[in-house]
Amino acid sequence: MSIDASALPASRRGRPRDTGKDEAILLAAGTLFMERGYEAASVDAVAHAAGVAKATIYARYADKEALFRAVLRHECEAVVTPDSFEVDPDRPVRESLIAVAARFLDLVLGDKAMGMHKVIVAESARAPRMAELFFETAVLSLKSRFAEWLRLETRAGRLAVDDPEGAAWRFMGAVKGEAHMRAAFGLPPVPAETLERHLQACADEFLCVHRPDRQEQ
What we know:
Blueprint (H helix, E strand, L loop, with lengths): L9 H4 L5 H18 L6 H8 L3 H7 L3 H16 L13 H17 L1 H13 L4 H28 L8 H21 L7 H19 L7
Helix pairs in contact: 2-3, 2-5, 2-7, 5-8, 6-9, 6-10, 8-9, 9-10
């Protein structure tokens, strides 16, 4: 006999997840990790700042490491959304590269990203796990998604990338360029017009090396 789930009490059906609490937890955790560092930011402190019970956090995340990873994913996907790497045959590859570069630069130059970067550098000797998690969850994950996009575009015949992993690293490094170095040192930012030309040049140089017809020249 089948059971109509809608007829069951709410306690048995399972209550809908409170997205407001999700946002409050991630916001509080992100702020505390940035202000105090990974080791000093406790789950108790996050619960207090978010206005939730500690059990509410553990119902969502197995431990502090899982919470930290969730914060990083949340921040990354708020800027570089999953559809950033969708292959669109009707969109010029150059346009896609410039868009990916712009979103990536927005991510790494954001206030939270730069704040986290400074904390990680300051705590690298005392709390190396924070740096490892940041690299694995934010940097490596983003690089892997971009590398997969390069593979798909190569299979579609719109690019010719022999080493997607290496090419992804080189493109991301080139995009960061002067703008990220200035931000890391607290110097005045690169003018918007200069930054736009930089992103276009990064895309053009990448295409010059990885255009499909390069081996026919």
